[in-house]
Task: structure prediction
Amino acid sequence: MPQLRDSSNSQPLPAQESDTSFERIFGIETEYGVSVTGISHDSAQISEHSGGLTDAAHVAARMFEPVMKTSHSSNTYTANGSRLYLDVGSHPEYATAEARTVRDAVLLDVAGERTMRELALAAQSSLRDELRDNALNVHVYKNNSDSRGHSFGCHENYLLRRSVSLSFLNRAFIPFLATRQIFAGAGTIRNGQFQISQRSDFLDDTISSATTRSRPMINTRDEAHADARIYRRLHVIVGDSNISQRATWMKMMTAHLVLCALECASRGCHDYEKEVGHQWPTLAHAGEDMKHVSRDCECNFFLSLTNGNTLTAVDIQKFYRTVAEKFLLFHGRDLARDIYDDAQECLKVWETTLNDISSGSVHALSSWVDWAAKHELLTQFKANGVSASRMAQVDLAYHDIAHRGVVDALHRSGRIMPLYTHDDISCAQSNAPQDTRAALRAQFIQAAQESPYEWSVDWTSVTVTDRNSRHCSAHLLNPFVYEQSREFRDVMAVLSKNQRIVNEPMLPLI
Result:
């Protein structure tokens, strides 16, 4: 077992740490895969002579040309306060702005999908014109692995009180994450076998700072983007990228409730082990067992616990649902009303889902669980004599957010129902949540884009530099604060002093 060290500040915690609040900030970072198909022989020759215009790296760069034109960087923040950038390996990535509710986090994630789709189709049009080939298609995949065996992630971020230690998370939260895939997995065909999770094969450790050679379920990179004396940013990298909006909502909503219970237990305000009648179901071989669960579509595999007992993934999830239910019973009044209502809905869906899995009714899950929807679709294809190679293409096409053939067909048939409308998503592309600091960042970006001055922005600060090279900054350390501070008003006042000067470059420094 890895040695776990907290990097928390040794200073005494502020008084807010002792309150009974269970507020949280949520965020989702999604890495996308890119490919090109339909290239004619002539286009391939042109591309080769032009420096490989159609390999993934060049296509990703082409996607970001409109971003470079407006922000002079491939690493920028968008109008809704989210971050858009090209990550290592030419993976387009979108990190949502801070959200106070899971619903807002999921909506921002879907808005990021829409933004990536628009960039991909613009790059496709540009390449078609340049190569004189209308058969060329640019694909952007919201999935977690490619044909060469590389993995890229969907990372969840939860603002967590530092009273919850890493060792406690290793004991009490890892079993939840390792088994959550039974309703949060995206599904895939790998080596001729259907698996529940795309990500599980690439994760070996539970909690560590590694990200490449031995990936953990939780990465300990300690960048709180908030007051580090009170909070850590829990960086969960075990999850699949979900196409189903409901699946994304459920995987994060269930995690939120479990984290609330862990925060409660760490404060000593409730004895969950005594109340539930169990100790936390700590796994003896979490990395290995997660892979076994992924290969067991019947969800009957027994996982070994450190106390010598064995439980199935469904059993473990039922334990955590009971823990979450007890938390709501004793502390529901400490949640904001909208969070409480979502928590009640989550408990109902959670119970129904686990009962359906226990009874073997996978079909009942196919309206929102990605792996179940995909499994049902591929099973039908196989029964109709579709070849294995064609099914592999359908498996990949399920995640193509640029062309969306498979998922749009499922939406039209009512087999998978989205949570948000077209108008909801369009609005979220250009508007930040109004109840977190993302609202301030978005206000600053809008004003800065109309200013002649150099400016910079990150998660916790905004800065403008006037013509006399004087810097004016505002710190946004508290993610829950969305009212303008005096220093923020000072920054906005600098931006508002002049109209944009024609032909003078605007340089956002990220």
